[in-house]
Amino acid sequence: MPNTLTIGQLAAAADVHVETIRFYQRRGLLAEPARPLGGIRRYSERDAQRIRFIKHSQALGFSLDEAAELLALDDGRHCQDAQVIASRKLLTVRERLGQLRRIERLLAKLVTQCQCNPGTVRCPLIAELGAHPVKAAR
């Protein structure tokens, strides 16, 4: 695949900002091509595909480190390793969904209490929020 894209064209092809490309290069997620003497660095469509892969991975909840792990496995022989990474992510997502469902139920209850207690001295929602210690989110 010939290197024909400037960094601006690469950004447009991958639907990211130029600074995103530079950030990925600093993180080691994308190689920085050599600059020809007196010329402009050029990128390939494969570079654009790599950036789209990273962005799609992030949209599915993978961190940049996890996306880098997956990229390192992209030789067709490591599907089981990729499955392990994705399974860990799926477990994390399911745990988070459970947390969000609990939050939803509690907030719905508190909102209902506010609607049922107009004019009280203390708002039930505010009282409840101040009554419990904060547990760190995972």
Helix content: 55-70%
Low-confidence stretches: none
Number of helices: 6
Order of helices and strands: HHHHHH
The biggest sheet, with number of strands, parallel, antiparallel or mixed sense and barrel status, is: none
CATH topology of the domain at 1-60: Multidrug-efflux Transporter Regulator, Chain: A, Domain 2
| Count of extended strands | 0
Mean pLDDT, to the nearest integer, reads 87
Shape, per Cα inertia axes: elongated
Radius of gyration: 23 Å
Which class best fits the helix and strand makeup? mainly alpha
CATH architecture of the domain at 1-60: Orthogonal Bundle
- Distance linking N and C termini: 42 Å
In what range is the share of β-strand residues? Answer: under 5%
Task: Kindly provide the name of the CATH class of the domain at 1-60.
Answer: Mainly Alpha
Account of the 3D structure:
The structure is a single chain. By secondary structure, this protein is mostly helical. The protein has a domain of 60 residues: Multidrug-efflux Transporter Regulator, Chain: A, Domain 2, CATH 1.10.1660. 63% of the residues lie in helices and 0% in strands. It is built from six helices and no strands. The mean pLDDT is 87.
Describe what is shown at a glance.
This protein is 63% helix and 0% strand. It has 138 residues and is mainly alpha-helical.
List strands and helices in order, with pairings.
Elements: H1 7-14, H2 18-26, H3 45-59, H4 64-72, H5 79-116, H6 124-131
List keywords for this structure.
single chain; 138 residues; mainly alpha; Multidrug-efflux Transporter Regulator, Chain: A, Domain 2; 6 helices
